[in-house]
Each structure stands twice: as C-alpha cells, then as structure tokens.
Amino acid sequence: MSLELHNCTYAYRPWAPPVIENLDYALPPGLTILLGPNGAGKSTLLRLAASVTRPRAGTVTVGGLRAGSRAYRRAVAWMPQQITAMTALTAREQVAYTGWLKGMNRREAWDAAARALDRVGLAAKAGTKAHRLSGGELRRVGVASALVHEARLLLLDEPTAGMDPRQRRVFRDILRTLTDDIPVLLSTHDVADLAEESDNVTVVEHGRIIYHGTTPGFLAHAPADVAPGRLAEAAYTALSESGGHL
Ligand SMILES: Nc1ncnc2c1ncn2[C@@H]1O[C@H](COP(=O)(O)OP(=O)(O)OP(=O)(O)O)[C@@H](O)[C@H]1O
C-alpha cells in the first residue's frame, strides 16, 4: 500500500513560512529510513503521512485512500516522537487503548496488546503502570502501540532513540519481520545503525528532499577511501554538505 504526498505545503502557523512546500513524495515498498538534521521536517512529513496534521495545500493518500478518512486512519500506524505515559493505565492497557481507538473491539484490542508487547520483548512489564516504565521501555510501548492493529503502513518517528544496544537489536529483528509485508517509513539519527537494514533512504533538509532512492545508491555517495563500517555516515555527510547537488 503506497503512501503518496502530492504538491504538499504545510506551515505550523498561518503567518509562518511553510516548513514543507510543494512536496511530492512516493514511498516505495520495504523499509525506508528518513534522515536529516534537527528541524529538517522529518516529523512534519511523518505527521502529514499519519494524517494527524493536514496540509495547507496538496493531497496525502495511501493506496488511494485520502488522509483524514476513517479508512485511512485504520490503514496507517504512527509512532510519534514523544510517547506519553497514560498515568492511570498499565502498559497493556495503553497499547490496547490504541487498538480500540483504531477500531478494534475491546476483546480484540486486549489480546492484540499482549501479542504486541510480547513482540517488543515487554511481556513481563505488561501489568506495570506506564508512567513507571523507563524511557526506553516507554518507547517500546510506543512501538507495540503502532503494531497493535496490524496496519498496512507503518510510520515510526525515531523509534530507537533511548533504547539500549540490545533493544536496538531486538527492534531491528522486529523490523525485518515487518517489512516483508508492509512498507515502513522510519525517521532516525542512527544513520549507521539502520542504514544497512533499509531498502531505501530519504534525506530531508529544510523541508526539501535532497535524496530519495535505494540504499546502495545512497551509500555510493560516500567518498571512495571511507572504511566500510563508516559508509552510511560518510554518505550522509557528503549529501548534507552538498545540499543534494553531488
Ligand atoms: N509545533 C510546532 N510549532 C511551530 N513550529 C514547529 C512545531 N514543530 C516543529 N516546528 C518547526 O518545524 C520545522 C521542522 O520540524 P520537525 O519537527 O519536522 O523536524 P525534524 O526533522 O523532525 O527534527 P528533529 O530531528 O529535531 O526531530 C522546525 O523548524 C521546527 O522548529
């Protein structure tokens, strides 16, 4: 199910200059990582795709469904950058609540929440109040919430931020099982960590896409003398410094 943004413009305030202007974007199948410096517009792009914000102009569709419709919201899962612990709820209740918001009945949502928490290695904390979880655990609740209703497109905003190295590995394994079935768009600053897992890379700067293509095509931007372990970082640096004009 393909995400498409057509000629999208978005500004946070009516009088403010647009963060994104006349943007065209089509998400390919598989895992696409979204890179860019702080303030580049990655979260804004994901929020538009998640239909939590609406463009001032242009259209956002997934498989022909228009953003804003109920069917669109059911088709798309979004993990925001900030995960808020719902104070009174346990981890499982918080995940189940997301499933219920996405249209599952209470029983389905409750069962699916347990499966989703198990998938992110958090089954043992299912009964813990969400506000008592560590920052990394709370992010895993966020990932579980995004997985709970088996969406047809997954949007993840810096899912690995604050996770320890072991959890990052677990998360990479989960990603591998997901991307065979549904397209995933994931923003990250962990260029080296996730580039080798991805099929495609999108680089955003000042709300503009300066690279959108395959991962091998992205890595080819690294200078020839770079050590293999540093390819992704070097490619990203080269692209950023050139503003995409390589
Ligand atoms: N709620 C908001 N109100 C006003 N401006 C905002 C708001 N959120 C983001 N912006 C501005 O929009 C621009 C893009 O921000 P965005 O959060 O999309 O960047 P990002 O690439 O996700 O950054 P980061 O890597 O720091 O998360 C920035 O200039 C930011 O200051």
Automatic annotation (TrEMBL):
SMART domains: AAA. It holds the Pfam family ABC_tran. GO terms for molecular function: ATP binding. Keywords: ATP-binding, Nucleotide-binding, Transport. Residues 3-231 form the ABC transporter domain. It comes from the Bacteria. The keyword Mitochondrion does not apply. Belongs to the ABC transporter superfamily. This is ATP-binding cassette domain-containing protein.
